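(Deposited chain)
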Amino acid sequence: MRARYVLPALAAVAALALTGCVDNSAPEPGSSAGNGAGNASSTPPAVAKDDAAAALLPDDVAKAGKLIIGTDAAYPPNEYKNEAGNPIGWGIEISDAIAAKLGLEPVYQVSKFDNIIPSITGGKVDIGESSFTDNVEREKQVDFVNYYTAGIQWASKTGTDIDPDNACGLKVAVQATTVEDTDELPAKNKACLDAGKAAIEVQKYDSQDQATNAVVLGKADALSADSPVTFYAISKTDGKLQPAGESFDVAPYGIATEKDSDMTKAVQAALQSMLEDGTYMDILKEWGVEAGALDEITVNAATKG
């Protein structure tokens, strides 16, 4: 699943917290209203429970009646916080709907991105929904129930000429521990060094809005992020950013679950039910990200695809 294609730019659909750089007056689509500060739950969308999917749940989760969801909530428009600090975004609505299909109340644990998988393996959360790119290395720790495909997309200041395939010597901003940070840029940097060219200066930030702001303020030459995130950031910077090149390295997003678990089976069944009854596509269309929709919910596509 490493093809090259272009995803359409997203409409400006929600607020991105880039102080002094963007228009934050856009409305917030969707019904998700969870509190991102700790163990508060969100209001699930109007989704009918799927009894067959719910029957696959681990007994302890079914009895608790809650689905504990780990998310970073710093990657708009997929997962981020509204002005009240509540997690929102199309990824949050997907996980809300999974919980509803399973007859559970969604409860969000907001943390740094790189803490989510350890929280799953350590039994602190039931699933992780945070725009995880499903790759072979991560599959060694958790399963991924695949629900979307996204490419990598660069952006630069409007009027600049930046080529992601010729990035030697550039300053590139990323959110730390994303696939752009761990896979894409190290490979590009090695190619630069092997060719005797200047290294890429990778600027790592805790959140995507910080990485975006670095480019807007001229601290970095470009940013690299998942395509829906980059196009959204461009739409919120009042013309200050532009796409740099086309989307590339298309790969699946996955809901992270405990390996070889009943939770993996339940989440896959819930998402497949959402796909079949139209809930899945309704959410993607609402946020303008339907270009990455799947026609079947799979598990661990990185190793099986």
